[in-house]
Design a protein that fits this description.
- The protein is mostly helical.
- Helices cover 54% and strands 0% of the residues.
- The chain is built from 6 helices and no strands.
- The termini are far apart.
């Protein structure tokens, strides 16, 4: 975590929040995770923490933590929020070999062209969900500002 109180990336936030229960037992690894800058090394340290702490969680837990980290990212960064909203109508894919977060292949891999080979793409799905929420919020705020009245039931 940076000295300004923010995580340096969503992956930092995700892994540090995910492994918070392990920070005492795996203190040295948790501290390495806090200080690491390289995303690929963050994943390696995370695997070490899982093994050291015998850590298990569910897909639901992982999705909830990542959703929370992404929500914070787009709330705190208006430029990123605008960039995400500019992708409206497009399917967002995380081209990664990770079958949970990504589509299971890198962008240069020919399998990327065939969705039958894809993984879960949960990162892309979360981003599209957040984008839809932001779009609804923007639409609501613009219709409220234009003087249209709302009826709440």
């Amino acid at each position: 975590m940076g000295h300004d109180g923010y995580f340096s990336s969503v992956w930092h936030a995700y892994h540090l929040l995910r492994f918070r229960p392990c920070r005492t037992k795996s203190f040295h690894l948790y501290q390495e995770l806090e200080e690491e800058e390289t995303v690929s090394l963050i994943f390696m340290i995370a695997r070490d923490i899982e093994a050291d702490c015998r850590f298990t969680d569910t897909a639901h837990d992982r999705l909830a933590i990542m959703d929370r980290a992404l929500q914070a990212k787009f709330f705190l960064c208006p430029d990123l929020r605008t960039q995400l909203l500019d992708t409206m109508g497009k399917t967002l894919l995380f081209a990664s070999t990770d079958m949970f977060w990504g589509i299971g292949c890198q962008i240069e891999d020919p399998r990327c062209l065939h969705y039958t080979y894809w993984g879960c793409n949960y990162l892309g799905r979360l981003l599209m969900s957040i984008r839809a929420d932001l779009s609804r919020e923007r639409h609501f705020l613009s219709s409220s500002a234009s003087g249209k009245s709302s009826i709440w039931i």
